[in-house]
Amino acid sequence: MVTTKRKGETRVITGNAVCAYSVMLCRPDVVALYPITPQTEVVEQLSRFKADGVIDAEMIEVEGENSAMNAVCAAACAGARAFTATSSYGLVYMYDAMLQTSGFRAPVVMANVNRETPGIHGVSCGQQDMISTRDSGWIQIIVENDQEIMDAMIMAFRLAEDNDILLPVMVNYDGYYLSYLAEAVEIPAQEDVDNFLAVLKTQPQRMTLKPGVSMGCGTHGILLPYTEMRYKHCAAMERAKAKFDQIDKEFGKAFGRSYGGQIEEYRTEGADIVIVTSGSAVGTARSVVDAKRAEGLKVGLIKLRMYRPFPREKLAKALKGKKAVGVLDRSVGFGWNAGPMYTEVRAISPEVGFVPMMSFIDGLANMDITVPNVARMIDDVSAAAQGKPYQETTWIPLEE
Amino acid sequence: MVAKTKFTYPYESGWSNADELLLYLDTGSWRTIRPVVDKEKCTYCGLCALYCPPQCLLDKKDHFDANLEFCKGCGICAKECPRGAITMVPEG
What we know:
The complex is a heterodimer of chains A (about 400) and B (about 90).
Chain A: E1 9-14, H1 15-25, E2 30-33, H2 40-51, E3 58-61, H3 65-77, E4 82-86, H4 88-93, H5 95-103, E5 109-114, H6 128-132, E6 139-142, H7 146-161, E7 169-174, E8 182-187, H8 190-202, E9 215-217, H9 223-255, E10 263-266, E11 273-277, H10 281-294, E12 299-304, E13 306-308, H11 312-319, E14 324-329, H12 340-347, H13 349-352, E15 357-361, H14 371-385, E16 393-395
Parallel strand pairs in A: 2-3, 2-4, 4-5, 5-7, 6-7, 11-12, 11-14, 14-15, 15-16
Antiparallel strand pairs in A: 1-8, 6-13, 10-12
Helix pairs in contact in A: 1-2, 1-7, 3-5, 7-8, 7-9, 10-14
Chain B: E1 15-17, E2 33-37, H1 47-51, E3 57-59, E4 64-66, H2 76-80, E5 86-90
Antiparallel strand pairs in B: 2-5, 3-4
């Protein structure tokens, strides 16, 4: 356990480069990557680290994302610390392998650089890709800025490989907005990262392939054993919530930064209304909440850091007693005409209390989630809280 | 979630020990024809065991023979045997 914070260094560095740097600090054994915009820089940087001899990982050149995921899944089954990164088309191209990886309980860590999905050739930011893999059995974390990319990657390895969890973890950061954004990032010392991850070595060794032992994974499974494995998978998902909170606290002690675990509450104390959002939009929302608070409006913000498992208990606790809730999604839920995160927040209404809940869709395909847009959203939620009529879903850029 | 602690399956995920648990589907009940190995013709090359889909051919040290609890009677071993040492015989 780290007790004293060593002096790291501060660098102005892009989101993708931070991701690669953080992965290097976590000392993976196997890295398999295939380039795709806007993730390509992660591949370039890790390849450069390998060429420079500063990362001691087996780098597998693959012919596509499906192979990348199968390679890291197999590597993790053999006991390796394994990493891959992708985005959009790449993510959906590896979907069957993602199901395999989570089903095998292979603790792979993946960075997904959020980008719009096929159909409309969206070479632009949006969270539709991660939303499309919601039920793949992966833990999904969403981060807000470059520093959080650095820190969340380290926490992701701790979470994935924890003996109580053993699930693959996807760390999502907004493409374009964060992938190419250069920010000052505090880079932790290698020794501190080593110490932070060292606890994993003290745990009982997970089931792995071993030479000379005839074990296989994912061979047969129907009827009761299948049901049991699904149950165990869901149980591990439930455990991941408290574990993520605990890892976040320990990270705070070790590195001086923590993020609240599953959710971060910002000025929700005494708030009448709350808006919920995730990713890079949180920064904008924070400043709008500050401005509205200065005007006397009692508004708070919740940053959703964990999408799967869904932090329903913590959210319900944070939203209980509020007069109205607005959820801002950077993706759509086909067949509900609302944002996917909104529908899940709405699903905990019995625990929260039946108050107006409103869905806002904005930021699709690189549309900026601007200060006026968030301010307008807060005004709408505020009006609903005062009993005025409201519409359930607002597509902010399409409104008059 | 309900705190369930007793499971029929010992692992967290789909791990199987090939010596004990890999063969747990009742594939033997699917069989309508079964392989009969001619020990004189068998050269112990092992191709039948390599090709067997449920991996049920047992190593008898000088020849191979199917474990009929799991052999589903697909006939691939008979087809692949270069010596023609395996004949598929109707059941019943």
